[in-house]
Amino acid sequence: MPELPEVETSRRGIEPHLVGATILHAIVRNGRLRWPVSEEIHRLSDQPVLSVQRRAKYLLLELPHGWIIIHLGMSGSLRVLSEALPPAKHDHVDLVMSNGRILRYTDPRRFGAWLWSSDLTASNVLAHLGPEPLSEDFSSGYLFDKSRGKRTPVKPWLMDNKLVVGVGNIYASESLFAAGIHPDRQAMSLTADEVVLLVSTIKAVLLRSIEQGGTTLRDFLQTDGKPGYFAQQLQVYGRAGEPCRVCNTPVKGTKHAQRSTFYCPTCQK
Ligand SMILES: [Zn+2]
């Protein structure tokens, strides 16, 4: 599933091909995504793209009279074509641009979304989102205050979008490992020092992934193949039974709120 670093990498990848160009029209081959593709997107014509932004895992294309809100869902991806290649089975949406580029959306499982909003502050999908993890609003003071009185295990707590956005399953496991914090700990048990370490670790893990993604940006404009996602060096995620890269103890796998969690029982207290 695309997580925040992949979405930010997508944003950086498509931005230079869209901003300053005009959407001539959209081609919606299959509008039955998680929600139906908004009517306004079907009807787009001659709309300049003013900016390409991101909020949580939503990509936001700013047009003069509103915003296209794109979510990649479980399996969605975007790529920029330099010519109108024949669409494949799962290529559901194209934006045909004035500069000859085509932004093509591919989504085998169709859990993604293409929505229109004339006013982002009124958008249902963006309401109630917590701070961006890389912003100053996501500080140790903020997280410590939120943790007081919280008996929730720290792993699912971190994945709650109302607390902080974009700390998905992979990054929650990886950040807790890097901070040496056991995923079963109640949030309220974290000390102030642990919260300081955890906040800086979350930011560092996400930034490192975005930087790794950046190295693939040159491949974002390509005629076929996969978009510019990237293989990551994971410390614990998906490595149950394999030796911890620090202490050689076998990594453990467990579940929190039906989501897989991985941790080292020696390194994480
Ligand atoms: Zn270990």
Could you explain the architecture of this structure?
- By secondary structure, the protein is an alpha+beta fold.
- The protein has two domains: 4-119, MutM-like, N-terminal (N-terminal domain of MutM-like DNA repair proteins, Alpha-Beta Barrel), CATH 3.20.190; 140-263, Orthogonal Bundle (Helicase, Ruva Protein, domain 3), CATH 1.10.8.50.
- The chain has helices spanning 4-18, 39-42, 140-147, 154-158, 169-179, 192-214; strands at residues 22-28, 45-48, 51-55, 58-63, 66-71, 77-81, 91-97, 102-106, 113-117, 252-256, 259-263.
- A five-stranded antiparallel β-sheet has the order 2-1-7-8-6, covered by helices on one side. Strands 3-4-5-9 form a four-stranded antiparallel β-sheet.
- α1 crosses α6, α3 packs across α6 (192-214) and α5 crosses α6.
- The chain starts with a helix and ends in a 6-residue tail after the last strand.
- The relative contact order is 0.15.
- Residues 222-230 have low confidence and may be disordered.
- It binds zinc ion.
- Zinc ion binds next to loops.
Q: How do you describe this structure in short?
A:
The protein has about 270 residues and is α+β, with helices and mostly antiparallel strands.
Under CATH, the topology of the largest domain can be stated as Helicase, Ruva Protein, domain 3
Topology, number of strands? 11
Small-molecule binders = zinc ion
> Distance between the terminal alpha carbons, to the nearest Å?
28 Å
Shape from CA axes? elongated
Report the biggest beta sheet as strand number plus sense, adding barrel if it closes. Answer: 5 strands, antiparallel
How many individual helices?
A: 6
Using only C-alpha atoms, the radius of gyration works out to 20 Å
Could you give the order of the helices and strands? HEHEEEEEEEEHHHHEE
Question: Which residues sit in consecutive blocks of at least 5 with pLDDT less than 50?
Answer: 222-230
Fraction of residues in helices? 10-25%
The helix-and-strand class reads alpha+beta
